[in-house]
Amino acid sequence: MERVSLEAKQRDDLGKGKAKKLRRTGMVPAIVYGRGIEPTPVSVDAKSLRSILHTAAGRNVLIDLAIGDSAQAGRTVMVKDLQRDIFRRDIIHVDFNTIDLTEKVEAHVPLVFKGHATGVVDEGGIFEVHLREVVVECLPTQIPEHIELDISALTLGHSLHVRDVVVPAEVTLVSEPEEVVATVVAPKEEVVAPTPVPEAAAVPGTEAAAVPGAEPGAATPSAQAPEEKGKPEGKAEGRKEKREKE
User: Does any domain span residue 219?
Assistant: First the structure.
């Protein structure tokens, strides 16, 4: 595990306004925590801090923090928490945790995938990552920079779990064994929407106006023959016979 040194200055002026002023000078406000010690507000050089966090160990780097002549001078710390600007992503605050090199700690270690999954190469599947780091427990000096995971034998429809991750003998996995790390899934089939068939255009004048409540195919009133008006035939014949007798 990589180990570096970092100088810090104890700060007495607290508050948001003081912190903003401090950042304008290229410093980052921080607090040092630890078992049996009072939280100590300090400030560290922003450029030096960025350089330390970009080492291979990342946030698990061991830092020998020198705070002048204070009680924390020469104490070894690790980064406990970082706050970044939501737009520029600059570090605006950091919490350090004092550690004992003889006591085990928990740390997040990144996973590095090795090889090419059979399910992708031979079966046309898609490799999906569900977990990019695992939590381990070990001595601070034994924290791995990363843990390799061979994915070559991963076939279509199968997954790798935390239980499949192999760690050094001095390291214990803390993450849930059944948690999925990666899987190979079948590609989703693209559903093509059917092309709509245009309806035949109606010829003007060939369709009669619809009558509300009429059954389909029924003749409209205009198409029905007009009822013949006149007197009943029986009465007309009776009058004719009467005239002939006269």
Answer: no
